[in-house]
Amino acid sequence: MTAISLADLATITGGELHGDASAMVTMVAPMDKAQEGDVTFLSNPKYAKHLADCQATVVMVKEAQREACGGNVLVVDDPYVAFAKVAQALDTTPSPATSIAPSAVIADDAKLGDNVSVGANAVIESGVELGDNAVIGAGCFIGKNAKIGANTKLWSNVSIYHDVVLGDDCLVQANTVIGSDGFGYANEKGEWIKIPQLGSVIIGNRVEIGSCTTIDRGALEDTIIEDNVIIDNQMQIAHNVQIGYGTAMAGGTIVAGSTKIGKYCIIGGGTVINGHIEIVDGVTITGMGMVMRGISEKGMYSSGIPLQPNKEWRKTATRVHRIDEMNKRLKAVEKQLEQDSDS
Fold this sequence. Notes:
- This protein is an alpha/beta fold.
- It is flat and about 90 Å long.
């Protein structure tokens, strides 16, 4: 268990402490359940009612809420960001691997940096380069000539295909596949002819990728994920996709081939994005969005029909199918009105 003083918390968060600097905390807890030894925070105003009675050793709040707190207070610019930093400092998640497991299979010409760890039954093929402090979890496969940057961690059973480049300080969760073939085929008289995928996947620094996600290699050029991108679980990123700096993508999203997504975009869960389109910087797409055309202006976009009682949904669906008919009737009425006004 990690213990941190409130003085150290102030340093970690850049906050201003009001209270006992020597008091210690060991974990982060919700405000209404926090006890002695816990640190908590207020980011949602609906929990402000708990401030006066909160039992935590310290509460992280903005300056406006300081007087409402009864004990030690750490005033910060953004309590949620402070929570993230403190949670990192108190994190007890074990490493995916420590040292080199005897059952790991490592090619003789693979280059391993200092303090590299490789878990049980992992396979490191010829020409691979692993940066300093890289951690390769149990059962991982690292294909020929792939490069894994310094401080990057792969959890168990991650597969990194040949020639893939993964930058520094990345985190890849279990069972993800990076560099598999994109969906490329030609059809000759009803027979499918596979198109070899000759590009690779280039992933920048500080990228985090969830579990069971697939990122396909490019057909001719590379699939590119820029720095500081976060990608959730169970996602499909097709061949030649480009994702810009700082973009966040929630679970279940599918991106078709050769689409370019700009910087600082936020893609809600379950979104489907068509291929060969471009989305500019700063776009937010709410969950279950269906993006069929490119987006050329920054802003928030939504699509789909919100949940309704079944009887109402059936009526809505019927009306949707009749839109073309209704449009023709409306135009006929407008035409008749114009004729009447002219006569």
